[in-house]
Amino acid sequence: MRRLVGTTTVEAVDDLLVSYALEQAGCVSAALVRPQRTDSGWSVAGCAIPAGAHQVVVDLMQHGQNRESSADARHQAFRMGADGSLVMAMSFSSPPADVELEQSILPCLELAEQHLQQVRMLVDLHASHRQLARSESLQRALFTISDLSGSELDMPEMLRGIHDILRSLMYAENFYIVRCDPRQSTLHFLYYADTVDETSPVIGQEMAMDAIQGSLTWHLITRGKPLMGSAEEIIAQLGGSLKALGPESADWLGVPMLRDGVVHGALVVQSYRQGIRFSDEDSTLLMFVGSHILTALERKQSKHELEQHVRERTSELARLNLGLRQEVQERQRAVRLQESLFQLARLATSDLDEDSFYQRVHAVVRKLLNAENFFISLLSSDRRSLELPYFVDKGVRHRMTRPLGRGLSEYVLRRGEAWLGTRDDINALQRSGEVVPHRIGAPSMSWLGVPLRFEDEVIGLVAVQSYEQGASYGAADKNLLSFVALQIAHSINRRRSAAALQEANIRLEHRVEERTRELRAEISRRERIQQQLRHQVMHDPLTALPNRGYLRDRLERLLAVLKSEPGRCCALLYIDVDRFKMINDSLGHLAGDEFLKVVAERLRYCVRDPDVVARLSGDEFAILLEDIGPHRNVEEVASRVLQVMNQSMQIAGREIEPSVSMGIAVGDGHYGHADELVRDADIALYRAKELGRRRYVVFDQTLARSAQDVFTLEGELRHALQRDEFEPYFQPIRRLADGRLMGYEALLRWNHPYRGMLAPNDFLRVAQDTGHLESIDWRLFKRAFQSFGKMTSSGLFLSINVSPRHLRNADFDRRLLGLLERAGFPGAAHLVVEVTEGALLESAGKVQATLGRLHDAGIDAALDDFGTGYSSLSYLHTLPLRKLKIDQSFVQALGEQVPDNSSMVVAAILALGRALNVVVIAEGIETETQRRMLLEMGCEYGQGYLLGRPAPAEAWSVKAGQPA
Ligand code: C2E
Ligand code: MG
Ligand code: MG
């Protein structure tokens, strides 16, 4: 029993108990058995005990007792252990004594039982201690594996590390890892370490699964379950044959690497030593390692894939980037090209001189193409030579002109299109004779020329050439140079047209200058003429005095000034020379002119600056006193004028006593127009004349009223025509010697409704001014013709006064003859028309024609009031005037006390009449003396109050043919 204390293992306790049992007397066999419960009861199979003992053990278990013995007591069974699962079976050669058994074996068994329990506890403690230590190191190893698989180490290094750890956990000297694709069509070795195998597979080399078909590894992968054992054992497990690959191992353990039930590879360890075998624990461990390796592999792989992807993406991006860079470069090139083209276009329109233009163009072209050798050549104006204003060859500039030949340039000029060619092309042209090779310089390897055009004409070319082998121009260069050519041609054309334009401008400028000079001369000539004309227009040529227009103008301006200066006044003196007509007629035109000049001179003498003296018409003058007032009395000026003008003067050797009549109007701001002031002065003048001349009259409102009478008169004349208030008075014309009636002069009278019978002086001027006179005449003619037909005996004539306007009317004679006929007038030959000199002055041609036609119709014309007009004598020559009436002013002067030259004038007229065979009639004979004197002077016929006053037709009808 002391030995029992020394035992530390269950087996040792078991052994000690068996040997103790065998030491018991009569015991032939003893064994400790652990019966197993089966479906059919209890079994102690495998235990080397006698059959009798076997039955006793089964009975013991079945009966659930602590002791059992066979019937013969030779076989004994004792139950042991706390759970009763251990049974001591003993066989005796003869039945043992119970007492002995109970005293010896049972206490021992009991003791052994207790000791066994302690041993068992100890063993368990040891085991769990080992287990803990192992677990700890395993855990550490697994952590390390996990770390390794997550490390940045590369795959072989990592696998080596895992192998090292694995080696520390189990026998793993020979270890390999394979990887297969999920479809298990290929596999490759990731790791292979083997102490025996000398033909290790190539790591990473892909191989077909079929290549290892039937091998352990193949089975492992295809089954997807761990495989463990010796070759035979495994064959037994698989139930088939094995294909041997590599040296045969004593023990083999392989586990699959699974992910989601799919095999991705396998881990295998093998032992070539008989003693070393693998356990399930190893299998589990390997499975764990395998899962980690797979994770690491997958991670590495995904990292690798990611890296691969990144690499691919990077290189793809790089490719893309390269493409983009190329595109950018292409664009930049295009932009540069565009810029250059713009630059060229700008150059073509810039104001550079020709030489700098070519240089700049060359500089731009150089940037675009190989233009080391570049030239521009132009055809000369006679198109016989080629001028090269810009020629650069190998960087050297030349300037030359050469006659046209048969070079490439000429070829381009001839064809009129661009030509691009290599050496071979040039040679071909030379062979065909199109081009003759020149001997100057190196031969071009490539040549490109483009013609320069102006409208449809080729004017030159631009060319580039290369002497380098292999460097040739292409279609792009051709396009580019064509553009350049366009710009150069444009610039040349611009220059040429600018030059032409400048030339034309210069010519034009010259022409303009010339013309300007001519025009200036012309203008100054015209200005002179204009000035003269203006002077003429504004001045009277005879006296050089300002005329009516000038006066009017001046007056107009003055009145405007007066409007703004209340209180200031001016005065207009309207002057008429009395009886100028007589002076003119009697002394002749020249004397008349002379007389007027003296009048002008005297008037000028009467005034001072800025007063104006003007000649308004024949014998009418005016003085404008610009400023009159308290210090300057207009009447004083007027008196002085009268006094100066009344002084006698010497004209044409004759002493003349001139006199003037004057109308004065004082103007102030109330006058609107010059004409109003002139009108008022005229009215005053009229009044002065009425009052008997040689005087002045200052206009006042009374005069204005009488002027207003003119308007009344005009209206009355119109009514008189409507009411037929005009009638003829007849005054006889007689032979002076015996008073024999020769004819009558019809004189106009107006039987005014309340003013009584009016003579022509009362209304004739107004009738004439208002244009009524002609109508009045016709009315009177008609009545005179009608009356004359009734009152006269045959042989008499009727004289009618014809106002000047009738004679200017081409229709007058026809109308007059018609009227004669209708009025029952005895015949045209009995009619005489009296005309005044005034009528003959204007439109002389027309008047002459009318008088001619009247003459042809048998109507005589008489010149009335002879001697008062201008230059009567010439009319007697040129016009068909058969009669002449001496104005009464000459007649009345005859026989007066004051000696006068009238008798001389009368005598002269009579002499003239005789010479021209014209009948002379004296007018206004009032006295017998006058009749006698006239008769004595040889005047045959006369008219006057002495011979009979004008009277209505009735007064004469009885006395016809009777002497007065
Ligand atoms: P006149 O043709 O020279 O006519 C003669 C004027 O002298 C007439 O004035 C007549 O009455 C006037 N007379 C005749 N004998 C004497 C005399 O001894 N002493 C004076 N002091 N006068 C005498 P009357 O009729 O007043 O005519 C004036 C002028 O009117 C005419 O001058 C004539 O020029 C014009 N006249 C007369 N009748 C007409 C007419 O029917 N038509 C036109 N257009 N003019 C006419
Ligand atoms: Mg008359
Ligand atoms: Mg008369």
Polypeptide structure, described:
By secondary structure, the protein is an alpha+beta fold. Helix content is 50%, strand content 22%. The chain has 29 helices and 35 strands. The strands form seven sheets. An eight-stranded mixed barrel has the order 26-27-29-30-31-32-33-34, surrounded by four helices. A six-stranded antiparallel β-sheet has the order 9-8-7-12-11-10, with helices on both faces. A six-stranded antiparallel β-sheet has the order 15-14-13-18-17-16, sandwiched between helices. α4 runs parallel beside α8, α8 packs antiparallel against α9 and α9 runs antiparallel to α12. The structure holds ligand C2E and magnesium ion (MG) (2 copies). The site of one magnesium ion has 4 residues, from β31.
Gyration radius over CA: 84 Å
Give the helix tally. 29
Number of strands: 35
Helix percentage: 40-55%
Bound chemical compounds: ligand C2E, magnesium ion
| Span between termini | 235 Å
Poorly predicted regions are: 959-964
* Largest beta-sheet details: 8 strands, mixed, barrel
Strand content: 15-25%
Instruction: Give average pLDDT, whole number.
Output: 87
Overall structural class, as computed from helix and strand content, comes to: alpha+beta
For the biggest β-sheet, the strand order reads 26-27-29-30-31-32-33-34
Give the CA-based shape. Answer: rod-shaped
